[in-house]
Amino acid sequence: MSLEKLRDWVGRTQAVEDFAAPFPVRALTATFDEKDPDPRNGDPLPPLWHWLYFLDTAPQSRIGPDGHAERGDFLPPVPLPRRMWAGSRFAFDGEPLRVGDTIKRISTIKSVEPKSGSTGSMVFVTVEHTVSGARGASFVEEHDIVYREAAKPGEKQREPKPAPTDATWTREVMADPVLLFRFSALTFNGHRIHYDQPYVTGTEGYPGLIVHGPLMGMLQMELARRSNPDRIPRSFEFRALSPVFAGGPFSVQAHREPDGSIATWIADGKGGLAQQGKATFR
Fold first, then answer.
1. Is residue 88 a contact partner of residue 217, using CB atoms and an 8 Å limit?
2. What is the rounded distance in angstroms from the CA atom of residue 60 to the CA atom of residue 162?
3. Most confidently modeled of 71-80, 149-158, 229-238?
């Protein structure tokens, strides 16, 4: 399908409603190995934890070869096989969502853009989500998805540049397959790169299971907010730079910038910069 035809998807919208039940919050708290009390109705939902809801429930008969729902419904049918979460941006302008709320998400395809990289052609799709709770609009999220060509014979991953070494706050995380499985289960994510070793190495050409970009993004936001417990988030953004592979540790790190914002990043097991972000607070 031509790029011009793919751009016909720009402007398409989708509305989804859900109930912010307590169990997913309790389960993710356990997955993150936190000691928070069990959630109760009325408790604020932490930033980014809405990813526990609005889950895509495509029928099994409509699952594509990569484990995602087949393309061409809401998301455009980009004819490139590899898909990754490239990054997200959030503006927290309203009241936070709360456990027990009926919540709503309105999604709009904002852009479909081709690019070229060292591994060939890519297409970036940006989706804007407006998320509301019982007290009206809570925040707006922009989500970037990148589609890439199939792996070429002998293709190797580029070495990431070194991560910063001046963190004020740090958390070590063991990226084992159980962590990846639990997060995939909680977000109903069937993408095979996170659990199917023969697929991710043989079909997509990566050296191992890939840690979810949004999992690392949530951990970045968690480190920033837990290190600043008396402040209210205003915005957060993160961008994926290099994959993190399961089987070893990675590090979530952050420090305060001169302007008061919190720079966050992910350092892989070799100290490479895998993901970077920034949080601001009121």
1. yes
2. 41
3. 229-238
CA distance 270 to 155: 20
- The answer to whether residue 117 scores a pLDDT higher than 80 is no
φ/ψ of residue 113, rounded to 5 = -130, 130
Decide if 194 contacts 209 (C-beta within 8 A). yes
Is residue 251 pLDDT above 90, yes or no?
A: yes
pLDDT reading at 119 higher than 80: no
Query: What pLDDT score was predicted for residue 1?
Result: 63
SS3 category, 246: coil
Task: To the nearest 10°, report the CA torsion of 174, 177, 178, 183.
Answer: 90
Tokens standing for residue 232: 């209210």
* DSSP tag of 50: G
Residue type, 218: M
**Rounded Cα–Cα distance for residues 9 and 27 (Å):** 35
User: How does strand 136-148 pair with strand 82-91?
Assistant: antiparallel
Instruction: Work out the pLDDT band at 116, boundaries 50, 70, 90.
Output: confident
At 2 the pLDDT is 75
Nearest to residue 32, comparing CAs of 191, 252, 277, 255?
252
Whether the pLDDT of residue 108 is over 80: the answer is yes
For residue 27, give every residue at least 6 positions away whose Cβ sits within 8 Å of its Cβ, in sequence order, or none: 182, 186
